[in-house]
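so my prof wants the structure for this chain in the tokens format not the other one, which i didnt know existed until like an hour ago. anyway here's the sequence
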Amino acid sequence: MRLKKILASSLATLMAVSAMAISTSVGADSTAVTIDTLQYNFTVTEVNKPTVVTFTNQNTDSAEFKKDIEISDVGDYSVTIENMNATALTNVGFISVPEDDKEAQVALTVTSIVVNGEYTVETNIELVETSPDNGLANIWNPKGKSEFVYYSGNCAFVGDGGKSIKFVVTDYGFYNTIYNKDGVVDLTTVKDIDASKIAGIDFIFTVTDDVLDKIDEEEWVGGAIGYQASSASDGWVVGDEFSFQDGAKPITAVVLDSGDTYATYKASFRADAPIFAADSELNNIWFQIYGESSYSISQATLYDVDGNIIE
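here's what i got, hopefully its the right format
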């Protein structure tokens, strides 16, 4: 039984809880690729006057790379930044308009990024030039610190906790395994591993909006980590519940990072024995904050019964 069989779950099943995942770290089978060109494909959804939009990104040597494009109406556009020779980035990209044209208002959705004219990464990120939400992931925000920043097929932008964002490719591909209630994919699985070894998992997740407010106001907020296997007769199994108040539940979510608008936590589940049987062909691990949707998972790490990371 291999991990790829876990990916056979239907979207309807995945949406039964807030999020579901099986994921491991980027391993040695991934190859880092030097970024020479980044092509941003985007759709302009709002523009109040003809203007010039500048796309800018930055490498780990603090060098910025820019490209201008004239915008006159809503519709599909593309702009390519060339001659980067970047082994890693600190900022995947942001938009701006000229200083002498600040009355221009532009909203657009970056639908995909093509790396080196060869690898296409789907993004679908909305950017609004006149707001703080004018950029893609960078090493200073939670998205850019996550292990998987953006990914599609066999390629991905990957983070390392806030030092850099690299671009990697792999022969085995990246598979969608985490869904929010609305079915939007947040994370991916990278490894073809033996699921019958799994006995624990760490989820790293970020809360915002309503969930963050409730935690700050010391209202009770909690959830659960569980699993389901086709070989099990009892269906969905709650491994353990968690809360943000120390000792209130078997698992206490531990804060890793926080700001005015977010807080990032880790919740860890451990079992005394592997949770999936060797003959089980369909396996899911799920994560849920009860009654809430203002959170996203950035990383999930699997463990065996001896506490070793499964890679």
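also thought this was worth mentioning. The longest helix spans residues 209-216.
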